[in-house]
Amino acid sequence: MRAVVLHEHGGPEVLTIEEVEDPVAGPGQILVDVAHTALNRADTLQRQGGYPDPRDRDVEIPGLEYAGTVAALGDDVTEWSVGDRVMGIEAGGCYAEKVVTHARQALPVPDGVELSDAAAISEVFLTAWDALVVQGGLTSGRWALVHAGASGVGTASIQIAKAIGARIAVTCSEGKMEACRELGADLVLERSPSDWASELAEAVPDGVDVVLDVVGGEEAERNLRAVAVDGTIVQVGLMGGASAPITIGLLLAKRITWIGTTLRARPLERKLVLCRRFLAEVVPLFESGALRPVIDSRYALDDIADAHRHMESNASIGKILIDL
Fold first, then answer.
1. Residue 290 predicted with pLDDT over 80
2. For residues 106 and 171, what is the distance between their CA atoms, to the nearest angstrom?
C-alpha cells in the first residue's frame, strides 16, 4: 500500500510517500480500505518530532483518523461486514491506503453523510464532545468558552453546544469571526489583539461553566479568571505554549477543576468506552442534521506537504481532508 512515511523530523518536506507492507487484521480487529483522512495539529507536531507515536511500529506513519470501507475481518469480529462504511480514530497510521483498528473502536458513517466528508468527524467531534460534555459536564443552559473557535475542534464545539441547548462563546482571529457566528456561536470574541477576557466578563459576568482550551500559554491565566465558581477548564492542547505564570489562588478561591486530556495516548479500553458512547449519543445527531462536518479544503495524498503548509498558515476554517 501507499503511505506517508517519516524517516526524519522537520518541515513538511520530510513527508515522503512510499510503498509499505499492508497491515493485517488480528483477533478483534478490522482492516479498513482508507478513502479519506484528515489533518490534525498533532500531525504537524509529530512531523516536527514533538509528539511521537505511542505505538511501537517499524514504520512511522502519521494520521489520526480515517474514513473508508471494511476490507477484511479479524477473528471473533461479528459486528461488521466487508464493504461497510466506517470512520474512526487511531493512534497513528491513517496517512495510508489501509489501516487496522479495533472493531469496537470503529464507527459507522452516519446515514446522510458522504464517505468523502466522514473523515472530518471522528477526531474533532470526539475531542470536543469528550472535553465539553463527558469531562466538562456541559449541559443545557450552561455557558462554554472555546478557544480557536474556527478550528476543527472549535467548529465541532459550537455545533455540539447548540445541539444540547448550551450557550457558547468562542475566541478566534478577526477574519474567522463571521464563520463562527454562522455556525451558531452565541458570543464571538477576537482573540488577539482585542481584550477578549473583558468582553466576556461584561457579557457573562458570573463566568463560564466550562472552558475548552487548545492554546495554553498566556490564555491559562485568563481562563482561570473567566471560568465560573465551581467551573471546569479542560486543557486539550498547548498551541500557545506549555508554560505560563498563573494565579494559583484562583483554583482554590473559585474551586476550579482543571483537567488535562488527550485522546491519542489513552488506553484502548477507555477509547472503546468513549467510542461506544459517542455512537449512541452523538452519531444520531449527524443523522438528524443537528451536526455536520465542516470542511475547509481537500488535498490529494501526493500533496500532503502542501496540506501541512496550509494548516500551519492558520488560514483554515474547519477540517483539511486528504483524499486517497
1. yes
2. 32
